[in-house]
Amino acid sequence: MTVVVEKTEPPGPPEKTRPVGEPAPAAEPRRISRSLVIGAILVVWLLLFAVLRGKQTLALAAADLTDLHRWFNDVNDSIGANRDSNPLFLYFFNEIRLVIDNLVTFVQELISQPSGARPVPQIGWLGVVGIAGYVSWAFGNWRVALLAVAGFTFLGLQGLWQESMDTLALTLSAVFVALLFAIPLGVWAGLSDRFHRIMTPFLDFMQTMPTFVYLAPLTLFFLIGGASASIATVIYAAPPAIRITAHAIRTVPETTVEAADSLGATRRQALVKVLLPMSKRTVVMGVNQTIMAALAMVTIAALIDAPGLGKTVVQALQSLDVGTAFNAGLSIVVLAIVLDRVTTAASVREEEARRSKNRFLAWRRPLLAAGAAVTAVLVFMSHTYLWAAEFPGDGGVGSSIASAADTTTTWVQDNLSGLTNTVRDLITNALLNPFQSLLTDSPWWLVGAVLIALGVVLGGRRAGITTAVCVGLLVATGMWSDSMTTLASTVVATLLVMLLGVVFGVWMGRSRLVDRMLRPSLDAAQVMPPFVYLVPFLALFGATRFTAIVAAVVYAAPVAIKIIADGVRNVPTTTVEAATAAGCDTWQIITKVQLPMARSALTLATNQGLIYVLSMVVVGGLVGAGALGYDVVAGFSQGQLFGKGLAAGLAIVLLGVMFDRITQAAARRTSA
User: Model confidence over 563-600: pLDDT tens digits?
Assistant: First the structure.
């Protein structure tokens, strides 16, 4: 006989009874969606815009100045009048300028400019090519050495040898000074948590500022020329080295440091024998980033009369000479690729050598010694013989390249103008003009209130406070209307960047093959200085603000694509497999799983895209973008507009800080 025992649940806690007459507890309030709040803000803005359009816009004509601009002009005049009598300039600024100027002049006379009574530099083209090849081989490998020799030879064949060497001289001078300060500061930040916390906000701020912004204040104290260009480049190029060096020191395994301490190593010994050797590869990557930043800044510093390829590009852009600009821009690209490959190879050479079983590695030192002897002979010949000092030929290759670029430009304008004009007019009329009108024709206080509200919703209270301060200072600069024009171009370009970023980033994140195919091109695109991007689009679209927007999109898209690709790839495979098992198709997996789980990557991509776009949009002032970029350029070329140009530079900084704070805060809130 089977006995069935009925299982009973243990008694739970008695239900609480509500006394008669007592009100029911209030239901927990529902949280309002952030998207809904943003939509409401935009609707209110549009309604008020329809009523208040054209009122209190703070518009300022191109030739008009505010009291702040006149005060800046007065300060500039006063500094110029007292530069040789004021102790601060006599014993500080002028001394710094003299030291930097002497360093730049020394390097220029060494490789690019006539030296003393000599009609040629101390080291001619043959010696420079030999040194470039030997250094590339010593720090990299023979492939990089061949690339360096071919690249430097190509610079001469283009007829731009001296301009290229001037650019190289300024870059090397600035990198030397930057690393002289950046490496010790990076090591200190790596060892000290307190110093790291102090340095991080300054580094964030310096890397947020577009390259244009550094130029105007420095010319105020150091005049125009190579010295100011080098100082601006030092300030712009140092943060990557500081940040990456600190990161390298801080990521050395604690167990390794503890082992050194247990063996009785002093702090200095631990640094020299353990921390620096183990972080050498990452530090060299920081040097690579410093060199790339320096090259980008040196070319833009042509606006303050820095010699080199940048000056050739600026003059060609201002005269709409696409052929010359393309030839000089190609030289900048070649120089950037060579410098990037050499430093990249140097960061991985030792690890590759350890893994390699090449029998020629045992002969490396004797071969390097022989190579040093050959290089010394080439340097001697270039110092002694004119044929080895002056690059032979008349630059026929460069003339052919410029002619081909002009011919291509003419063909494009004759045959593709219908297509290019359609694309330009579609985006300009459908997207840019309405948004720009909304920003520039709304009352300033209404736009300011909308920006502050969006800052609070997206980034929180602190981001809202930062936005409020930036809005107030933008009004104070007197550049509100031009700032809104630049803001419109920046937002439109960023939207296009994110569209490309999502499409190609998801594609790369989902396919290893696509990633391997596209990533080298994206890496190469990030090497090129901003100036280079203006040239081809000048040929396609002419000198318009749309040219600057397209160049900004192409300039900023690679970094956004790579960030989004990494974010999509980091979505757990198990989550994707679970969605697939539940019957989701590819579109649903992307939109319902991968993109939502990569929100922090999307926000970070937006942050970086905005900063890159802003820096490029203002450079586009050279090709008709107008607004703040034009104001800065006009301030360099017209003395009476110096104060306005300085205020425009300050406005660019404020826009950059506002963008950066809101998007960074939004990224933190998304990942929390």
Answer: 898 888 888 888 888 888 888 888 888 888 888 888 88
- Identify the three-state secondary structure at position 140: coil
Element (H, E) at 368: helix 364-384
For the entire predicted model, the pTM comes to: 0.79
Q: Which two tokens stand for residue 245?
A: 């060096």
Helices and strands of the chain, counted as H and E runs = 33, 0
Reduced to 3 states (helix: H, G, I; strand: E, B; else coil), residue 580 is helix
Rounded Cα gap, residues 217 and 304, in angstroms:
11
Which of 100, 165, 97, 95 is closest to 127 using CA atoms? Answer: 165
Query: What DSSP element (H or E) covers 502?
Result: helix 480-510
Q: Do residues 541 and 547 touch, judged by C-beta distance below 8 A?
A: yes
74-82, Cβ contacts within 8 angstroms, sequence gap of 24 or more? 75/220, 75/643, 76/220, 76/642, 76/643, 79/220, 79/221
pLDDT digits (tens, 9 = 90+) for 331-371: 888 888 888 888 888 777 655 555 555 555 566 678 888 88
Asked if the model's pLDDT at residue 21 lies above 60, the reply is no
Q: What are phi and psi of 212, to 5 degrees?
A: -55, -35
Q: Cα-flanking dihedrals φ and ψ of residue 223, to 5°? A: 65, 175
For 257, residues 6+ apart whose C-beta sits below 8 A from its C-beta are 270, 274, 275
3-state SS of 5-61 is CCCCCCCCCCCCCCCCCCCCCCCCCCCCCHHHHHHHHHHHHHHHHHHHCCCCCCCCC
The three-class DSSP label of residue 531 is helix
Question: What is the SS3 assignment for 215-257?
Answer: HHHHHHHHCCCHHHHHHHHHHHHHHHHHHHHHHHHHCCCHHHH
Q: How far is CA 284 from CA 281, 293, 304, 365, 369, in A?
A: 5, 14, 30, 22, 24
Residue 113 near residue 122, CB atoms below 8 Å: no
Query: 141-160 b/e with 16+ CB inside 10 Å = b?
Result: beebbebbbebbbbbbbbbb
What token pair was written down for 500? 């490309």
Whole-angstrom distance, CA of residue 167 vs CA of residue 150: 18
Q: Tell me: the pLDDT tens digits for 84-133?
A: 788 888 888 888 888 888 898 899 889 988 887 788 888 989 999 999 99
Contacts of 288 (CB under 8 A, 6+ apart): 340, 343, 344, 347
For the chain, what's the residue count?
A: 672
- Rama region for 213: left / alpha / beta (φ>0; ψ in -120 to 50; rest): alpha
